[in-house]
Amino acid sequence: MSAQPHPLNTESDRLLFAYWVPNVSGGLIISKIPQKTNWDLASNIKYAKAAEEAGIEYGLTQIRFTSGYGAANQHESVSFSQAILQATDSIKIIAAILPGPWNPTTVAKQIASIDHYSNGRIAVNIVSGWFKGEFTAIGEWWLEHAERYRRSNEFIRCLKGIWTAPEDTGFTFGGDFYRYRNYVLNPKPVQKPHPEIFQGGNSDDARNNGAEVSDWYFMNGNDLDGFRAQIEDVKTRAVKVGRENEVRFAVNGFVIVRETEEEAVRVLQEIQGKADKEAVNAFRDSVQQAGASTSNKKGMWADSKFDDLVQYNDGFKTKLIGTKEQVAERLVLLKSLGVHLVLTAFLHYDEEIEQFGRDVLPLVRQYEKEGRGKNVNFEIERTGDVYRKKQ
């Protein structure tokens, strides 16, 4: 029997929320600021239960095979996701998967099994990889950018095919990276047609994957024009392959809610002021080299400055920093742009997941009941200046 929906989550067109699971050390920032955030399983079960209580519907585990950039320790994503699911009732956990170290057969089997254990609460995020040192350290080929995303495209096609293939014929596929002949997986996943598949990026290759094969397209933080352009571009690509109604959009945002905007901004300034400069610079070099290799020179961090990169996925740019009212207003603006899910992260997980559920989420739902988040021109006029590029 499925868990009853959270009282804040009864409307089908509501904005959805997820949180980054801190299953790696160092939290979600590359900073030496003290944090009330831990990466062990017991703490993460507490965070997941707090998220359920708050009305947050997804958690996203991270995958790293080697240490780097402030994250010295890392728990593996799939097993960690399963452990959280066993201790919770309703939240969905999205497990990060890296093609190369994983192949579709193993992932399809693991996720189908966990889908049964959790009564349909597992999803996957297919990450194509940006950290060359990680691949070479474990003996994996480091493919060029376009090839990494082409491999991910095949990977997703294989997952979907394995999970949905009919019993009498099984799954057959002849690709450049993966091949199958009449493969039948049993048991199939509980979720139909299959567990949700997320993927993200900013390059043409990533946008094509979002349009062609994934259920969800993750975006880094951005300014107002950047969000609009990216969403419209992926939608246009999806129309060309007949998937205009099949791809949804999720955006990353780091949340700092305080009594006043000034207090929230001071916290941001302290995080950035205490940045681990060596780690941030190393991270910047690695990701911007990866971005420069894309055909349009627009990898996920192509335009990111030092202060942006203190939060791994440009979460400060999303501007969820201020009073509870300001943050709620900005969330309904994002919804009006076509964002379906906001992926949150916090400085103090011990306290701030609960705070977000107590102070911000009820306001978002109140605004939605008032009809907010549907008229993009109204929301931009009301809130949009905070996202515009500074001249």
TrEMBL record:
Q: What is this protein called?
A: FMNH(2)-dependent dimethylsulfone monooxygenase
- Enumerate the InterPro entries for this protein: DMSO2_SphG, Luciferase-like_dom, Luciferase-like_sf, SsuD_RutA_monooxygenase
PANTHER family named among the record's database cross-references = ALKANESULFONATE MONOOXYGENASE (PTHR42847), ALKANESULFONATE MONOOXYGENASE-RELATED (PTHR42847:SF4)
The GO terms describing molecular function are: alkanesulfonate monooxygenase activity
| Gene3D superfamilies according to UniProt | Luciferase-like domain (3.20.20.30)
One of the GO BP terms on file: alkanesulfonate catabolic process
The signal peptide annotation in the UniProt record is: none
| Start and end residues of each Luciferase-like domain | 39-340
Could you tell me the keywords of this UniProt record?
A: Flavoprotein, FMN, Monooxygenase, Oxidoreductase
